[in-house]
């Protein structure tokens, strides 16, 4: 997987620079997210893997499916990716683009798994505390995981805060076993 990211990185950086210079980060983000979904479609994967099609035919097929969702620059990106046999990298390019966008906007996506539903007040309090701790704007998505027993597990990029009862019990068991 790291190799795909390495190959996708220059394309993501180029797309990011184009979007940043044109002040179109949100447009490019949406465009790449849509193209990523198209590239992951089973039928499209068959088209992209078809050795009897030329790179130009693959690019045209991809652009036809994305009709109206790709700007002229987005279509150019698809053509360049097709010429270099890299159309299957669009999901990785989209992911790397989102990381660059988050760095630029000084924001971070945070997922919170809790044992019970969080109220909007609890989410706001957590967002405020995390925003202060991480010195960034925080975008929260929360889900319920009843196996946690109580508490929550918070993930923000590489940072994981395990404040769940299950996590604390696991740490206690490890300490007793040592």
List the helices and strands and how they pair.
Blueprint: H1 2-21, H2 25-40, H3 42-49, H4 55-65, H5 72-83, H6 90-105, E1 107-114, H7 120-134, E2 137-144, E3 151-156, E4 159-164, H8 165-177
Parallel strand pairs: 1-2
Antiparallel strand pairs: 1-3, 3-4
Helix pairs in contact: 1-2, 1-6, 2-6, 4-5
What does this structure look like?
- By secondary structure, the protein is of the alpha+beta class.
- It has two domains: 101 residues, N-terminal domain of the delta subunit of the F1F0-ATP synthase (Peroxidase, domain 1), CATH 1.10.520.20; 72 residues.
- The protein has eight helices and four strands, in the order ααααααβαβββα.
- Helix 1 packs antiparallel against helix 2, helix 1 crosses helix 6 and helix 4 runs antiparallel to helix 5.
- The radius of gyration is 21 Å and the shape is elongated.
- The model has no long low-confidence stretch (mean pLDDT 89).
Features:
16% strand, four-stranded mixed beta sheet, 178 residues, 2 domains
Explain briefly what this protein structure is.
The chain is an alpha+beta fold and 178 residues long.
Query: Architecture of the largest domain in CATH?
Result: Orthogonal Bundle
Mind telling me the CATH class of the largest domain? Mainly Alpha
* Major sheet: arrangement of strands: 2-1-3-4
Query: Approximately how much beta-strand content do the residues carry?
Result: 15-25%
Mind describing the biggest β-sheet? Answer: 4 strands, mixed
């Amino acid at each position: 997987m790291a190799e795909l990211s390495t190959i996708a990185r220059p394309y993501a950086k180029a797309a990011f620079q184009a979007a940043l210079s044109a002040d179109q980060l949100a447009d490019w983000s949406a465009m790449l997210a849509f193209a990523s979904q198209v590239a992951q479609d089973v039928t499209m994967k068959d088209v992209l893997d078809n050795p009897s099609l030329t790179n130009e035919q693959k690019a045209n097929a991809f652009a036809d499916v994305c009709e109206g969702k790709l700007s002229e620059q987005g279509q150019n990106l698809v053509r360049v990716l097709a010429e270099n046999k890299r159309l299957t990298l669009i999901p990785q390019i989209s992911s790397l683009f989102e990381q660059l966008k988050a760095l630029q906007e000084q924001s971070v996506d945070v997922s919170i798994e809790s044992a019970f539903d969080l109220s909007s007040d609890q989410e706001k309090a957590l967002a405020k505390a995390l925003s202060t701790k991480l010195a960034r704007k925080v975008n929260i998505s929360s889900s319920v995981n009843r196996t946690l027993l109580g508490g929550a597990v918070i993930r923000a990029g590489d940072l994981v805060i395990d404040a769940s009862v299950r996590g604390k019990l696991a740490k206690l068991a490890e300490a007793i076993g040592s």
